[in-house]
Amino acid sequence: MSRRTHPATPPAPPRPWWHDAVVYQVYPRSFQDADGDGVGDLAGIALRLDYLTWLGVNAIWLSPIYPSPLVDFGYDVSDYTAVDPVYGTLDDLGRLIAEAHARGLRLILDLVPSHTSDRHPWFQASRSSRDDPKRDWYLWRDPAPDGGPPNNWLSHFGGRAWTWDAATGQFYLHSFVPEQPDLNWRNPEVLDAMAGVMRFWLDRGIDGFRVDVIHNLLKDEAFRDDPPNPDFVPGPGANPYHSLRHLHSSDQPDVHRLLRWFRRQIDAYPGRVLIGEVEYGSSVERLARFYGDGDELHLALNFSLMTLPWESAAIADHLARYDAALPPGACPTFVVGNHDRARVATRIGPAQARVAAMLLLTARNTPFVYQGDELGMRNAELGPEHQRDPWGLRVPGHGRDPVRTPMRWDASGHAGFTTGEPWLPVGDDAGTENVARLREDERSILTLHRRLLALRRADAVFTLGRQRVLPLAGDVVGYVREDGERRVWVALNLGSREVEVETPGAGGGTIALSTALDREGEAVGRSLRLRGDEGCVVVLGRNSGRGTSTPRAGRAGPHDRGWP
Ligand code: GLC
Q: Could you tell me which residues are beta bridge partners of residue 514?
């Protein structure tokens, strides 16, 4: 056998799956109840996997499923290595992972390392005495000289971030409610314990973690006061948390050291993804820093489409600057909805929610879709008796219950979500705004999501292509995705008036999809007429009509059979 003298060029590493994925956020309490107790569960999610493959997403992120006293609805974890009985068992999770993987769907869990529940055995031990070996797993401090809290830090959910513990004569820190004490991430024993937690789930085959509030993990070692925020405008609706600038209570520079540590844990399991929740309102530069030198987060969640004014200038500027700010090889993300903020259809209206879906699913990024946004769900009108969220109970107007109401599957009682009494009502319009009806409607927002997802799958330009943001044309945000010869133009009218926009390049093109779902195949010349609130995907070039195949909803596709 001849010995090879010139080593072959190593093959390019395969593209990580999350660069091409669309992640669907499941809020387990509200997705599907299989046992009739009115709360969603893992067995219920398994029953609906065929819906997710029919829709065309690739990965599911589950909000927390761990045992929790539910003060913050699962984001107060009392056992990191178990499943809350209300959701099922570890075996149910194993089955869900296997059934998801059998369909080519990845499963991502939420990891909440910044704080535990006050019922967690770690905190119970920590608060039992000043000498307990776990005392330093949390952040305990003596009172200030006047007997008050050690500094001026505030809780995200209203009030002080410190609670007095009379038994041991110290305050403990909680960035959220007092029932969510913050872990001390400067204590190596905490790192060891959390590494064990991560291994526990990774060994069971999950595909990665979405890590909660990573900017919150480390605090100033000297516990200095946060300075006042000069831009804060007090008044009804204002969140008092923003009266300070959180220079010391969050986002410390050495959090990057910690993120590299998280990444090493994940890298021990090839093919698993590390996603981080980064503070709302982060600049593009700050978002970029969380990718490190390719050794921190794989994906940093970008909430800008939820926080920026929904105006063409702001959105186009953000698209251009975000893409430019990210380090080479880093994959952008966009989120237009989640369990924490108003529904996109409520924030910007149902017509623009369709435009936002087109942006989310055609811009260069790994998109995150929140359950129910594909149905155009709006914030539910809930009476005070349904107010459950601690944020809303502490700071009026901030309750998140209206965005967490159950999925609507069909027109049956409680929208097919449960045979019992749902933990939150399904809402008045569930009789018509449900999966069963909207999937039969060729022009529905559900059909639009499915068509956009199909387009994205069928044409690599949407995942591999570079992105060039076009100069602003009034209310129209435009960008071109390019991959070799293939060029696709996306034009989004963020205004309600009809406009005429110039086609980029000289060759014209063909409409592949309009948000109104009624212009497929229409030829485009030197300009494109966009109706108010309309977005279009246009394949550029003279022969653009050919090769533009976008499976229509309703036609048999590979995943159609077996949909319940
Ligand atoms: C994250 C979660 C939110 C939770 C908070 C505290 O922002 O998304 O639901 O309340 O962290 O854990």
A: 536
